[in-house]
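Incident log, support desk, overnight shift.

02:14 A customer reports that sequence design results differ from what the structure should imply. Their input is reproduced verbatim below. On-call engineer (initials T.W.) acknowledged and began investigating.
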């Protein structure tokens, strides 16, 4: 039984590492892009500069995040904002967390910074505490989760037709 458990854990670990290709290695191109983006920026604008760089170079998104972390240092106060900017730029929370940990960012900080997901996407906080999801049904959901959105102005059953 112990051999089966050990084998299962080993396969699970291999499968997880194969699914999350993160690396602390960064190409010269990504390093140059981040250096240029951060050149005239201060710490308060690093996140916006990173998100712009990712949106302009989506094929280098993971390397750009790694380069940004390396540029500011893994223990910098700017790191959580950089991680959120990467998620907002299109990287998954799992990828961002993996890249952060591979670049010596504390796993707790990395997980916490990406827990909210993409805060700049089409879903924005509604005025009633729910989520406005952009559908034509106008869902502003007043409770957690927001509910469905309904259709887009179907046939009214109250008009006697």
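02:41 Re-run completed on a clean worker. Output:
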């Amino acid at each position: 039984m112990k051999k089966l458990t050990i084998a299962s854990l080993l396969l699970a670990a291999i499968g997880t590492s194969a699914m999350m290709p993160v690396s602390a290695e960064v190409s010269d191109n990504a390093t140059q892009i981040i250096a240029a983006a951060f050149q005239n920026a201060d710490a308060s604008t690093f996140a916006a500069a990173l998100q712009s760089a990712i949106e302009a170079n989506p094929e280098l998104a993971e390397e750009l995040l790694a380069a940004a972390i390396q540029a500011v240092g893994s223990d910098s106060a700017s790191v959580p904002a950089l991680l959120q900017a990467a998620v907002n730029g299109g990287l998954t929370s799992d990828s961002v967390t993996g890249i952060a940990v591979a670049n010596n960012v504390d796993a707790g900080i990395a997980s916490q910074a990406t827990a909210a997901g993409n805060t700049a996407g089409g879903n924005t906080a509604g005025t009633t505490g729910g989520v406005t999801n952009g559908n034509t049904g106008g869902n502003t959901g007043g409770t957690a989760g927001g509910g469905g959105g309904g259709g887009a102005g179907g046939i009214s059953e109250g008009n006697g037709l």
